[in-house]
Structure formats: structure tokens, C-alpha cells
Amino acid sequence: MPVPGELTFAAPRGAKPPRHLADLTPGERREAVAALGEKPFRAGQVSRHYFARLADDPAHWTDIPAASRDRLASDLLPDLMSVVRHVSCDGDTTRKTLWRLFDGTLVESVLMRYPDRVTMCISSQAGCGMNCPFCATGQAGLTRNLSTAEIVHQIVAGMRSLRDGEIPGGAARLNNIVFMGMGEPLANYKKVVGAIRRLTDPEPDGLGLSQRGITVSTVGLVPAMHRLADEDMKVRLALSLHAPDDELRDTLVPVNTRWKVSEVLDAAWNYAERSGRRVSIEYALIKDINDQAWRADLLARKLKNHRVHVNLIPLNPTPGSKWTASRPEDEREFVRQLEKHGVPVTVRDTRGQEIDGACGQLAAAER
Ligand code: SF4
């Protein structure tokens, strides 16, 4: 049953997402507007409506002549995605959204409101080609890369719901963005970097968010990690390591057969050096697989004295999977081993478990 406002058609396979204002640099926007026969400064006006006012309904663009509004809106702000459903938990302060894109593809984003901050977790690809065996998204494979605008619009929609008081706690602003939803962000490099620019360019060219509030995760695509370091940005890099030794990591993160732990860590330290930011090491604790004390010790030896913080993630098991979260005593010992070597570590809050919070689970259920 279609949800009101939902796009119900499916574009032919391989069709490109419609071009949108958020795909374009400010210069490209002026060219696009001029190509419509409009004055180039209208590009700045439309940008202000979309990025600064979060308003894409041309009926509200009173500074633009009525005759131009629909033309500009249909050319620069095509419908990109529609809500299939929202699922909430934690007193409605965690809200996961399943989106249907123009071609029927499904992706997810999650908004998490804490007492002192709001974080959104967004998708950069539909599906993922990295094939990590413990991950729901990995099991379905890669459908396609998202466009820059499809990435940015997840945030615009989240900012609107915060502004409009849809999330309990009153109107709020977004503080943090993590590229930890569906997909390997660095496998969609250009579109992801374009999205970071749109998110952080000052209004009205972009949303004016802080680069320091953005975290980009990767399983360790070494050349792309070096390229990101060359961008001279202040976003945080989160490396999904999950094992300190190649033998196990080859099986948990198959891309490790291409770039080994030592190479991946070297690329992470290079990024830390260039960006001035601590690298986050993500480590999903999986019972009897990667949670032994000796592995914690090995991990600590490889990380100590570097600009790093370890995030331990109790595994959120996917339905029908043999992988499950570590025993509490093993988790405690893992933390103790890292702390013994002076490596900063936290165990991540596992919000959203009751709403299929791990990436890809809601989309998998829908399929
Ligand atoms: S864990 Fe991340 S990189 Fe691995 S398959 Fe899942 S989404 Fe892809």
C-alpha cells in the first residue's frame, strides 16, 4: 500500500538518480539556472531556500517571481526519495527511516537524540560490496552508489524533523553525522566527498555544519584513505578493524586480503597526522571469534602511542546469523587489556537494537 507522497514507480535498472541542486557546486548551480533562461543569482536564492531554510516547496519562495518558481524547482529540486516508514524506540528519540529512492532502491538512515547532542547515521550506498559475513547489508551485495544529493537529502530531512519538533525534546539542531549506515563510503569516494562539502559549506552554498562533527567510516580502502588525507578536511576517520591479525581479519573483512592490517593502520596514522584528528578504531565484539584477551593485547600493542580511540561495539546479531555478541565478562576483559596499555576505549551505546538498528536490517526485512 503506497504511503502518501511515496514515489511508486521504479526507474529502469541502471538509470541515474535525477540531478539535484545538492549535486552541484555553486558555480554549476549558476550555470544550470542560466541554462533555464533565469538570472544566475537565482541559484543563490534557491540554495538559500534548500540549505538554509530547508524549504523545497516553491510556494514559499516569495523572493522569486511566481512564473520562475516551478521551473526552478522542477529542474533543481526533483523528488529524490520518499519515506517508506519510520520505526522508533528509546521513547521515540531514536528514529530509523527506510527510504525508497527514485528507482525503487531502499536505503536507511537513523537519527539518535541524546540529552546533549543529536547524531544521524546515514547511508552512502544502497547495499554494500564488501561482503563482511556478520553484516546484514553485506549479505545483500551492492545495488548502487548513492548520488551526492541522495546522501545530503537524508540529512536535510533529519534536520527538518528536528526543527519541526517531530523528535521528542523540542526543536533541536543536528550535531554529528556518521557515515556508518549502508555501504562503504570510500567505495563511493567522489559522491561522499561532494556530500561532505555540501554539508559543511557555509550557508547558503551548503548546510554550514562543522567538519569536526562528521565521521567517515571505512573497512580500509588504503588508496582512498590516502586520498582523503590529501583533501585537507577535519572530518574524523573511523576504521572498522574488527581484528588485529591478518588471519582472522581476512575472514571478517574480506578486503583485508587486498590491504593488510599493517598497511591499513599506516594509512590511518597518515590520516591522523594530516587531519589532526584521532582515528576511531571500530571493533565489533563477536563471541568466541575476535574477543579473546590475547587479541585485545595484540590490538593494544599495535595501537598504543598513536592518535587513536577504540570503539568496541557489542555485535547486533542479524536474524539467522551464527555470530552473536560477546559475553559481558569477555567484553570487560577486552577493555581491561586495552586500558592496561593506555589505549583510550569506550563500549558503544547500542541504540536501536529493538528496531533492527544495525545497518541493512530494516531494508533486508522489507525485501
Ligand atoms: S560491515 Fe560495513 S563494509 Fe562490511 S558489508 Fe556491512 S556495510 Fe559493508
TrEMBL record:
Keyword annotations of the record: 4Fe-4S, Cytoplasm, Disulfide bond, Iron, Iron-sulfur, Metal-binding, Methyltransferase, rRNA processing, S-adenosyl-L-methionine, Transferase, tRNA processing
Organism of origin: Wenjunlia tyrosinilytica
InterPro entries xref list: Aldolase_TIM, Methyltransferase_A, RlmN_N, RNA_MTrfase_RlmN, rRNA_lsu_MTrfase_RlmN/Cfr, rSAM, rSAM_sf
Gene3D superfamilies: 1.10.150.530, Aldolase class I
Swiss-Prot/TrEMBL cofactor(s): [4Fe-4S] cluster
Lineage: Bacteria, Bacillati, Actinomycetota, Actinomycetes, Kitasatosporales
GO MF: 4 iron, 4 sulfur cluster binding; metal ion binding; rRNA (adenine(2503)-C2-)-methyltransferase activity; rRNA binding; tRNA (adenine(37)-C2)-methyltransferase activity; tRNA binding
Reactions accelerated catalytically: adenosine(2503) in 23S rRNA + 2 reduced [2Fe-2S]-[ferredoxin] + 2 S-adenosyl-L-methionine = 2-methyladenosine(2503) in 23S rRNA + 5'-deoxyadenosine + L-methionine + 2 oxidized [2Fe-2S]-[ferredoxin] + S-adenosyl-L-homocysteine; adenosine(37) in tRNA + 2 reduced [2Fe-2S]-[ferredoxin] + 2 S-adenosyl-L-methionine = 2-methyladenosine(37) in tRNA + 5'-deoxyadenosine + L-methionine + 2 oxidized [2Fe-2S]-[ferredoxin] + S-adenosyl-L-homocysteine
Main location per the UniProt record: cytoplasm
Enzyme Commission identifier(s): 2.1.1.192
Additional detail: Reaction proceeds by a ping-pong mechanism involving intermediate methylation of a conserved cysteine residue.
The gene coding this protein: rlmN
Protein name (record): Probable dual-specificity RNA methyltransferase RlmN
Coiled-coil regions, chain positions: none
The keyword Disulfide bond is annotated on this UniProt entry: yes
Binding site for S-adenosyl-L-methionine: G183, E184, S217, S240, L241, H242, N316
Record's function text: Specifically methylates position 2 of adenine 2503 in 23S rRNA and position 2 of adenine 37 in tRNAs.
